[in-house]
Amino acid sequence: SIWIPLMAWRILSFFVFQQSKDVQAVIYLNGEEYTRLSLNEDKEILIDTVKILIKNGKIQMISSDCPDKVCVKTGAINKNGQVIACVPNKIVITIVKGNDNVDGVTG
Asked: What's the gap between Cα 75 and its chain centre?
């Protein structure tokens, strides 16, 4: 019967879409929380020489003056626990569930 796969798909999609709506990006600068942003609103942020983009429910560093550009090469993230770090500029972006409280990032 088609009902079993259809119900499984609906249950799975509920959890997937629920998670994507309920996540935030926490940006740390010099080891301290700088800002906390929803991924539901597209925007561009400039912190010193690092350009950060939120688009289509994902966040990424799109430019940086750091030498290796590991942060830019990491690409876009949107899942709980994912991290982008620009070590030379002391900027860390982490994804958390909307109600998670993160104590900080040591640096």
From this structure: 10
CB contact at 8 A, 38 and 55 = no
Say if CB 71 and CB 50 are below 8 A apart. yes
Distance of CA 46 to the CA centre of its chain: 16
The average pLDDT across 73-78 equals 96
Closest to 28 measured CA to CA, from 39, 36, 19: 36
- Contact between 88 and 16 (Cβ < 8 Å): no
- Model's pTM, two decimal places? 0.74
Burial class, 101, CB count within 10 angstroms (exposed 0-12 / middle 13-18 / buried 19+): exposed
